[in-house]
Design brief:
The protein is of the alpha/beta class. Strands 1-4-5 form a three-stranded parallel β-sheet, with helices on both faces. Strands 2-3 form a two-stranded antiparallel ribbon. Strands 6-7 form a two-stranded antiparallel ribbon. A hairpin with a 5-residue loop joins strand 2 and strand 3. Helix 1 crosses helix 9.
Length: 258
């Protein structure tokens, strides 16, 4: 099974997917003991290292021969704020067999993608075309604590990645194993990428915990807005299923009973 874990950039808002990752890891640890080449903390810090907000992040991993490999990373949003589609393209390349290959039950595509967002600022009422037409350069650069022009690029990037991934997976009937977890209604300090007060970070953790209880949703191809799938599952339920699939896959590769 091809498995992809994608995490958006978002400064201190990386705490939101961090909570979701902690939940997923707890489910995996309950099934088996394993280690990753890089700590999830390093991955989250690196993908949130937005220039001018947070410093670049350095960490090292070891190759199979024990040699250290150094990483000096900046915010992934510089290239792709939602890296799901890039990861999918990199792993699959021209080999579409990944999408035609079936899982053991022969009913589902053997691909699973978990995409974690760091939250989006709730859109204000002043973003209709009439008001925006009156904005000057400074309004585009900074307005009500955010930068509309930067937010527009990053939000558009994420929406496009969601939509392209959904279309590709639906084409090959793989969309049942695509899980996107995102909160697009952050307001006030919660929408900041660098406000690291204890109060704000505690609130971001709460956002992540609340997301686990919310229904599974997906972007509507026409409106580009998130809508509930209506299958009765919460994000926590879906992650629990993903953890079982990942655990069973690892055991299968090592010839262990599932």
């Amino acid at each position: 099974m091809l498995s992809i874990l994608s995490i958006d950039g978002g400064g201190v808002r990386g705490l939101v997917p961090g909570v979701v990752l902690e939940f997923l890891e707890s489910k995996l640890q309950a099934r088996s003991n394993f280690s990753l080449n890089a700590f999830l903390s390093d991955i989250c810090i690196a993908t949130s290292a937005a220039p001018t907000y947070l410093p670049p992040h350095h960490f090292e991993t070891k190759t199979t021969s024990g040699k250290p490999r150094k990483f000096n990373l900046l915010d992934g949003g510089l290239v792709a704020n939602n890296p799901t589609y890039e990861a999918l393209s990199l792993l699959v390349g021209d080999n579409l067999d990944f999408f035609t290959r079936k899982s053991d039950d022969q009913n589902e595509c053997d691909v699973m993608i978990i995409s974690l967002g760091t939250g989006l600022a709730k859109k204000g009422k002043d973003t209709d075309s009439g008001n925006v037409a009156k904005w000057g350069v400074l309004d585009w650069l900074y307005r009500h604590g955010s930068s509309p022009i930067i937010d527009g690029f990053s939000d558009g990037n994420m929406a496009s990645a969601d939509d392209h991934t959904r279309q590709l997976l639906e084409t090959f009937k793989c969309n049942k194993k695509f899980l996107r977890i995102q909160d697009e209604n952050l307001t006030g300090d919660l929408a900041s990428v660098d406000l690291s007060t204890k109060k704000n970070m505690d609130r971001l953790i709460q956002v992540g915990e609340d997301l686990l209880k919310k229904p599974v949703r997906r972007v509507n191809s026409k409106t580009k807005l998130y809508e509930e799938l209506g299958d009765g599952r919460s994000n926590g339920d879906a992650l629990t299923c993903c953890a079982k699939l990942l655990s069973d896959e690892r055991k299968h590769r090592h010839g262990l009973p599932t």
